[in-house]
Each structure stands twice: as C-alpha cells, then as structure tokens.
Amino acid sequence: MTTNTASWPERYAASLMNTFGPPKLILTRGEGAHVWDENGKEYVDLLGGIAVNALGHAHPALVESVSQQMSTLGHVSNFFASQPQIELAEKLLELVGAAGKVFFSNSGSEANEAAFKLTRRTGRTHVVVAEEAFHGRTMGALALTSKEAYRAPFEPLPGNVTFVPYGDADALASAVTDETAAVLLEPLQGEAGVNAPPEGYLAAAREIASRRGALLWFDEIQTGIARTGAWFAYTESGVTPDLITLAKGLGGGIPIGATIALGAAGDLLEPGNHGTTFGGNPVATAAALTVLDVIEKEELLERATTVGRRLREGLAIDPRVTEVRGRGLLIGLDLAANASPAVAAAALEQGFIINNPTPNRIRLAPPLVLSDVDVDAFLAAWPAILDKAGLP
Ligand SMILES: *Cc1c(COP(=O)(O)O)cnc(C)c1O
To answer: N or C: fewer beta carbons within 10 Å in the chain?
Structure first.
C-alpha cells in the first residue's frame, strides 16, 4: 500500500471539480452544534450545513432511525412503495393542513424542477419569479433564478420567465397575466441575504395569482421545517399556496426534496410525466419522519423563536451591525462596511462557522438545537470578531 503524502486540501484540489473554490476546512466529525476539523480544532456550527442540520450533527434519534431503516429496507425503486414514504407524505400534508399530493426527490433543485414541470401541465408556460431569488442550479431551477453570473454561462435556459422586484405587489400585478402558469416566491429570501417582504406582500401575491388563474408556489427549501419558528415561513402571512417545495432541513442531513401540490394541483402530474430513481427512498423518508418527530418532541419550533430572538438582540448591540434581518434561526446581519468575507474568516479563526452571502451581509442558520452556552459564547466573541475583521 502506498501512503499519500499530499495534504487533504491538496488532494481535494487534485481530485474534485473546482465548482466551489477551495474548501474552508476539511471536517471530520460533528456532535450537536459542534464540528471538528482534520487538525482536531473545534467549531460552533452556526450555519448548519446551510440550514440543513436542523437537529445538529449525529443526533441519536436520527442515527438510530437511519441505521434501523437501512438494516430493514434501504431502497426499492418507485415500482414499489415503502411505509416511511407514505407516512412522510401524510405527515407533511397534515403540517400544511390541506389536502394535496407529494412528490419526493433528493434536493432542492429537484423539488423545484418537479414543481416547474408540474406548472407546465396547466397548459400555460409563463412563470413570474422575484429578482435576487435563488431556486437552484439544474437547468430548470436556474431558469427561475435571476442572478446573471449563475445564468449567463448556461443560456439558453428554459424560457418564458419574467423577473420582478421582490416585495413590489404592483410590479407583480403587472407581470402576471391570464397566460401565467405560476408565481414563484420565497416567503423570506435566503441566499439573497435573508430578505423579508413587506407586510401583505404574500397575501397580495395570493390574490393576484388567484385572479389570473395562476398557481402560487412558495419555495420553502431554506425557510421550511421549523427554521423560522414555524413549520413553514409562509404560515405567518395567513396565505395558503398551491405549491410548496422543501429540501434542506427536511432530512436533517440526509438528502431529500419534496414537492407538495395542494388541491387540484396535486393531480396535474400524471403517470409518465415525471420520475426519479432515488426520490422517496425509505432511508431518506424515515430520516425526515424522525426530523419532524424530534422537532415536536424537543419543542424546536419554540426554541428557534426564542434562541433566534436572543441571538438577534445580542448581535445587534454592536453598532457596527446596522440591521438585523430574518425570523427564528434564519438570521441576516447587515454590516456597516463591505467586510462580510473578513468577518466570516475572523469568526472561523475564533471557532465559529458563519456565512457571508453578500459583501455586507452575514447569514446564520444554526442547528435548531443550538445550546444557550453556544449562544453566549458567540455573543461574547462577536465584538472581537468584528475588531479582527477590521471593522471601524
Ligand atoms: C438551497 C436552495 C435551493 C436549491 O437546493 P439544492 O438542494 O442546493 O439543489 C433552492 N431554493 C432555495 C430557496 C434554496 O435555499
């Protein structure tokens, strides 16, 4: 056997496509909201795999259910069904509180891809989407994402998409016509840096879509599954959409996506219209059932709200934070200067994983199980992190 003398980052660079740039760390282990790197250094994970690790790392209930399901029945193909798949669909519809149908896939992009195809079955093709929105990287999901840098290298993308400024109900009303198949919105824009729409915007979107016979589609891939202190971020608006897409937090780290279509929209996709080999796999659906169960048992909806409030209030005390955004444990911080990469780097050095989605914004999306001790530690370190990043 030969021993590899290259470092892990060197081996990464030599063997993985350079789609993400060099990794910030090579991680080896996690427990709760903590992770350890290859050198044994410990970090508080305030990003949670980008809003994925809802139960933190290595939650015993998730480990148990995935292991148990894998040792019972791991995969069957969609010629067959499994009980966890059916139970998860029922449970999601129960949480939404409306009749409908679910399609399972393996990622956010795939959940959106299925929804996008579903909207074509209305007989219309036009989709209205918000600027700055992020809906994923497959060709279909990318067609619904406005960011020029992501789109340009891959054009032409599937067409008939109109982008409108997020939060502007008048612009939405002008863009949606009797030819519009769907209006797609994030109830709270995640990748854009945690943008909340003005009061009444989602209700206006519902009214506009209904008036034109278009489907209202909420992308809850980042905001869903307790992240904002509610099962879905849209519930606060009192609006019921026709389509909901989920992924990230749903599997607690096991890849899963879900496309939920309510009412008649649930019957738009017919046999042969869409498919997947892995989607709805027993292990992934068992994992998601456990995530939902633990959120209820450990009262993590409430915890997301109270811990989120404490973090926001504590971080805002420093005057170099000019605005605090978001709800629950999806938090955006506006900085007084374009220094978010330096702030994220300084935090990492101090043992805290945070994220910089835009040049002047920090995003936090920690595990919902984040402890008070970790919150205190981060709040105590925050001023020094900003100092270190050179913020005046
Ligand atoms: C992450 C994300 C996606 C894409 O999910 P992937 O699993 O990366 O394909 C789509 N929409 C939103 C709002 C997201 O945050």
So the answer is: N
d(CA 372, CA 357): 25
Note the helical H segments in the chain: 8-15, 48-51, 60-72, 83-96, 108-120, 139-143, 148-151, 169-175, 201-212, 282-297, 300-316, 340-349, 372-388
User: How far does residue 260's CA lie from ligand 1's centre (Å)?
Assistant: 15
| CB-CB contact of 164 with 130 (8 Å) | yes
Burial class (CB in 10 A: 0-12, 13-18, 19+), 101: middle
User: What domains can you pick out in the chain, each with its CATH number?
Assistant: 8-59+299-388 (3.90.1150.10), 73-297 (3.40.640.10)
Q: Which residues have C-beta atoms less than 6 Å from ligand 1?
A: 107-109, 112, 134-136, 186, 190-191, 219, 221-222, 247-248
Could you identify the atom of ligand 1 that is nearest to the CA of residue 112? 10
Does the reported pTM lie above 0.90? yes
Which pLDDT tens digit goes with each residue over 118-167? 999 999 999 999 999 999 999 999 999 999 999 999 999 998 999 999 99
Furthest-apart CA atoms within the chain: distance in Å? 69
The residues annotated with a catalytic role in the active site are 134, 219, 248
Q: What does the pLDDT look like over 361-379, one tens digit per residue?
A: 999 999 999 999 999 999 9
CA nearest ligand 1 atom 11, residue: 135
User: What are 147's two structure tokens?
Assistant: 């960011």
Query: Is a pLDDT exceeding 90 seen at residue 316?
Result: yes
pLDDT higher than threshold 60 for residue 1: no
Specify the residue with its C-alpha closest to ligand 1, atom 10: 135
Residue 251, token pair as written in the block: 């599997």
DSSP string, 80-101: S--HHHHHHHHHHHHHHTS-EE
CA distance 33 to 38: 17
Distance (Å) from CA 134 to ligand 1 centroid: 7
Q: CB pairs under 8 A, 24+ apart, for 77-81?
A: 77/277, 78/275, 78/276, 78/277, 78/279, 78/280, 81/280
